[in-house]
Design brief:
With 426 residues, the protein is α+β, with helices and mostly antiparallel strands. The chain folds into two domains: 15-72 and 197-419, Naphthalene 1,2-dioxygenase Alpha Subunit, Chain A, domain 1, CATH 3.90.380.10; 77-191, Rieske Iron-sulfur Protein (3-layer Sandwich), CATH 2.102.10.10. It has helices at residues 15-19, 22-41, 61-72, 156-159, 200-204, 225-230, 238-241, 280-283, 348-381, 395-409, 415-419, and strands spanning 51-54, 77-81, 90-96, 99-105, 111-115, 129-131, 135-136, 143-144, 150-152, 171-172, 174-177, 180-183, 213-222, 255-259, 262-266, 300-303, 307-312, 319-327, 334-342, 387-390. The longest helix is centred in the last third of the chain and has 34 residues, at 348-381. The protein starts with 14 loop residues before the first helix and ends in a 7-residue tail after the last helix. Bound molecules: FE2/S2 (inorganic) cluster and fe (ii) ion. FE2/S2 (inorganic) cluster binds next to loops.
Length: 426
């Protein structure tokens, strides 16, 4: 298990460059070259055809049960950024499709992903997030260590003999890589998260997220997780649905680059708000190895199944919005957790502007995207709208839904090989 935070990676060199493997850098350079080529030629990449899919994929209980079993309990999920739990004892709770998870950083710096359910009779050990030296169950008072070990039973003489070693909290495979915490929600998974990341962690490493600062987060309830996430996978809707917030002048086009099931979604030249130092199009060439790597990172990063990383520049400081869409207990429920991280600890003015930006992005998603998705959910449930269309300009959606179908067919043994062979698209 890879649970130790590497806090030493970057003495000397610019952090992001030092974090990047030669293979990941080459891949980023290749993608930058493709983008610049399209920019120079004023061309635009499209998927080969329009894809039609069953609308029932969004509302079928059977489909949802298969996704829970074969995707959400097999594929490593990003459940937090490392900087949400910077210190020993820091914890965060999160629920995925009804599975309550407790993430804890223990004294030695390693991260544990535990089932947030007491082994006496199942009560929740923690709620929200915070810091704790140990966890005491609020029902009858059993106590557990940061790594899930059962420390103590209330009135042990009255309770009777038990095997304390066997009654620790259930542990999930967890890995902390590239400043993100990845968990497989199956204690008996034959795989470790690192085996199933398709190399996307190596690419995201360039952000150096492990040294960033948590600013704030919010949870937005929504409909089926795929409907909630579809809006992250194309920019076709942006100047229309978001004309009052982002404005009507944004491009509705996007370039897509796949890395296994993961993707980058990148607007053509002209997306407003990109800081000059990060703007590949303004640079007009692939940066040299000696130059900052940041222009290679533009665009929205999609971590399968349903996480996105978007960069913003409140008060000129780089920040990212980490959006984690998680299925709820029912097919028609999800939650989008928006978490804002700052590259450098924000001063008062930057913190204020980040707060304003967080509120704005919460409004865009919570009052524009998610109500639209909720309406789709309602009409699909009637069965009167049997199909949906993913256009040639919506290659990200085609890729996402294609991978869902593929993973629902794949055996456990096949997973590492499937995920190790990135399928490209651009
Ligand atoms: S359920 Fe936790 S102590 Fe009883
Ligand atoms: Fe949107």
């Amino acid at each position: 298990m890879d649970g130790t935070l590497d806090r030493t990676a970057r003495a000397g060199a610019p952090r992001s460059a030092a974090n990047l493997s030669p293979a990941a850098r080459a891949r980023l350079e290749e993608q930058a070259g493709v983008l610049l080529g399209h920019d120079a030629d004023a061309t635009f990449a499209q998927a080969p055809g329009v894809m039609t899919a069953k609308a029932s994929n969004y509302v079928s209980t059977e489909q949802f049960e298969a996704e829970k079993r074969l995707i959400f309990r097999r594929i490593p999920l990003v459940l937090a950024a490392s900087c949400e739990l910077p210190n020993p004892g820091d914890f965060k709770t999160v629920e995925v499709a009804g599975i309550p998870v407790l993430l804890v950083r223990s004294r030695d710096g390693s991260i544990h992903a535990l089932l947030n359910s007491c082994t006496h009779r199942g009560a929740a050990l923690a709620a929200g997030c915070g810091s704790a030296a140990r966890f005491t169950c609020p029902y009858h008072g059993w106590t557990f260590a940061q790594d899930g070990a059962l420390l103590g039973v209330s009135s042990p003489g009255d309770f009777g003999a038990i095997d304390k070693l066997a009654l620790g909290l259930k542990r999930f495979p967890v890995a902390e890589r590239s400043g993100l915490i990845w968990v497989i929600l199956d204690p008996d998974s034959p795989h470790q998260p690192a085996d199933l990341l398709a190399g996307i962690d190596d690419m995201v490493a360039a952000f150096g997220l492990e040294s960033w600062t948590f600013v704030e987060s919010r949870a937005l309830p929504g409909p089926n997780w795929k409907l909630a996430f579809d809006a992250h996978l194309e920019f076709y809707h942006v100047p229309v649905l978001h004309r009052e917030t982002f404005g009507p002048d944004r491009s509705n086009r996007a370039f897509y680059f796949a890395q296994g099931p993961h993707q980058r979604v990148i607007a053509p030249r002209g997306r407003p708000g990109v800081a000059a130092r990060d703007d590949l199009y303004a640079l007009g060439r692939v940066p040299a190895a000696s130059e900052p790597v940041d222009p290679l990172l533009i665009g929205e990063w999609i971590l399968f199944p349903a996480v996105s990383i978007n960069t913003f520049y409140p008060n000129g400081q780089r920040g990212v919005l980490l959006s984690i869409v998680l299925p709820g207990p029912e097919v028609s429920q999800s939650v989008t957790i928006q978490t804002f991280l700052a590259e450098s600890p924000p001063d008062a003015q930057t913190r204020k502007e980040m707060g304003d930006l967080c509120a704005f992005l919460g409004k865009v998603v919570g009052e524009e995207d998610l109500p639209t998705s909720a309406f789709q959910q309602k009409v699909f449930a009637t069965g009167l709208m049997p199909e949906v269309q993913y256009g040639r300009n919506e290659g990200g959606l085609q890729h996402f839904h294609g991978w869902i179908a593929r993973l629902l067919q794949a055996s456990d043994a096949e997973l590492p090989a499937i995920l190790a062979s990135p399928c490209r698209q651009q």
